[in-house]
Amino acid sequence: MNASPFLRRALLLDAAASGATGALMLLAASPLAELTLLPPGLLRAAGAVLIPYTAFVLWLGRHAAPPRGLVRAVVAINLLWTVESVAILALGWVSPNALGTAFVLAQALAVLAFAGLQAAGLRGAAPLPA
């Protein structure tokens, strides 16, 4: 498919935000854990997952014709991240303070927004000419 500029920007914005968040969680897990009362191991693990994800989404966003299935996978991963973020709070798997809860919910909302933007961009993507 030919990716619209909208879809490519949505992917690149996701990559930028994921990279920044991943670096923060990976490199500053201990100070962030002290501020949020989120487990430092969870923060490090989430940050470590985001680094290759960032590279993958950046790669997709830089292609004029990213495979539709791979973009759908990014949307699915973003939806799963959102559900898991809410679940760790709702099921009591972590006990953050108010700042920690806000941190988890804010990034979940941002990730959900990326999924929505990317899904909208997929609907507007043109098929490759035969």
UniProtKB/TrEMBL annotation:
Keywords: Membrane, Transmembrane, Transmembrane helix. The chain crosses the membrane at residues 12-30, 42-61, 73-94, 100-122. This is Integral membrane protein. It comes from Muricoccus nepalensis. The keyword Membrane applies. PROSITE patterns: TAT.
